[in-house]
Amino acid sequence: xxxxxxxxxxxxxxxxxxxxxxxxxxxxxxxxxxxxxxxxxxxxxxxxxxxxxxxxxxxxxxxxxxxxxxxxxxxxxxxxxxxxxxxxxxxxxxxxxxxxxxxxxxxxxxxxxxxxxxxxxxxxxxxxxxxxxxxxxxxxxxxxxxxxxxxxxxxxxxxxxxxxxxxxxxxxxxxxxxxxxxxxxxxxxxxxxxxxxxxxxxxxxxxxxxxxxxxxxxxxxxxxxxxxxxxxxxxxxxxxxxxxxxxxxxxxxxxxxxxxxxxxxxxxxxxxxxxxxxxxxxxxxxxxxxxxxxxxxxxxxxxxxxxxxxxxxxxxxxxxxxxxxxxxxxxxxxxxxxxxxxxxxxxxxxxxxxxxxxx
Length: 359
Known about the structure:
Radius of gyration: 39 Å
Structural class: alpha+beta
Shape: elongated
C-alpha cells in the first residue's frame, strides 16, 4: 500500500493526489454545513429584525461569498501539487478572471439590493422603484468597465493606452450621441427631482395625458384621446409641467350675468344667496362673490370657490350641483339670467308721422 501511495504520476505521488482529493471533499462538506446550518440561522435572525439590509447581506453571502470561498480554497489546495508549466500559467490567470467576475457581480448585487432596500424604507411606490432600472443599468456598465480595466492591469498589461483610448473614444461617442446623452441626463433629472411619476396626469406644452413609463431616453404618456405620446426626456425637462395628480384642491372661478331691470334689492341679495348655496354643497368651500362689472347685456357677478378634491369627476359633479342650485334659486326669486339682447326705443310721434306719410 505504501509503495502504491509513493508512486509518481505527472510529477506527483498518489498520496498527494489523495490528500488533494480529500481536502476538496472536506471543504465541500464543511461549506455545505455552513450553508445549510449557519446561513439558515442567519436568515432566521435577519427575518426578526425590522431592516431588510441584513437579509441582503445574508443573500450575498449565500450567493457569492460561499461559492467563491469554495473556489479559492480548492485553488490553494490544487496549487500544492506539482503542475506542468502550462497549468502553472493558466490557473493563476483563470483565478484572477474568475475572482474579478465574482467581485463585480457582488458589487452590482449589493448596489442593486441596497438601493432597492433604501427606496422601500422610504416607502417609495412600486412605479418609482421600477424607474431605477435605467440608473442601475448605467451603474452596472460603469462597474463592469472599471472591473475589466482592473483585470487587464492585474494580468500585467499596461492600461494607460486603454484608458487613453476610452477617453478619446468617450469624447467621440459623446459628440456622436449627444442627443441620447442629453436624454439620459434629463432622465436622471426627472428621477431625482421628481416633477412627475408613473400614473400622474400631466400637461406639458400642448400635450397632456397619464404617464405610463419613464424610460432612459423617452417618457410614454397616454393621452385622453387614447394614443400614446412618446416624448423625449430632454424636451420634457424644458417644458413647464402641470402635474394634476398632486393637485390638492381646485379653485373654480366662473361668472353669471343677470338682466339690467333686476331690482337693486335683489342685486344686493345675490351675493348672500350664492354664499349660502356654495357653503351648503358638500366638498365645496366658498371664497367670494362680487358684482364685478356692467356688461353690454348684463350685470355680471364673479364667483370663486374651492372643490376640496383633486379628482376631476368630483370637481365636475360639485360644479354641476352648484350651477343647478343657483338656477333653481334664481327661478324661485324671479331673477332672470341675461343673454345677448338689444332694446330699441321708438318715439311715438316719429312713429305716427311715419305712418301718415306712408298713407
